[in-house]
UniProtKB/TrEMBL annotation:
Binding residues annotated for [2Fe-2S] cluster, in chain numbering: 102, 107, 143, 147
Organism: Paraglaciecola polaris LMG 21857
Protein name: NADH-quinone oxidoreductase subunit E
UniProt key word Transcription: no
Keyword terms of this UniProt record: 2Fe-2S, Iron, Iron-sulfur, Metal-binding, Oxidoreductase
Amino acid sequence: MSKVIPIKQVQAYAEQTVDYRQVLSQSEIDAIEHECALYESRPAAAIDALQIVQRERRWISDESLYAIADMLCMSATALEGIATFYNLIYRQPVGQHVIHLCNSISCWLNDFQTIADHLRNTLNVEFGQTTSDGNITLLPNVCLGCCNKAPALMLDGELIENLDIASIDKLLQSLGGGKNE
């Protein structure tokens, strides 16, 4: 039977605040302030702020989320909604490299399953997992927008199209993750 958490406890957790100056680095603060200056309101810089912190830390921890919310003068709940909506904002730790494998209909029609199976078997992970050495995280992605060059993946923000087993092996070898662990 699942435990029922009182609504007041949930609200207290969701609205926890921290002083951003105690959590964020000066370079993160400066970069976020720069982005805020480009918008009419501070909360409008939310995605930019999340990306800035993620670039430094590879993911957005709860503490980082609360600090960003404090800096942007917005609720942590609203920022959490933004962070969890975008699949390129990571709310859990990820590997040094992140592979987003496109699983759109175009990729399915162009051998997605073979590519997916090969990645999972070679890396010894399932979707949503990170290799035991912390090097590579494998994630599915609904669409990368390159259907005419399927199958495709995005590695650390770079699109790689027209995949086959040989190109996957070459890619993994370049990342130091080409053998079962």
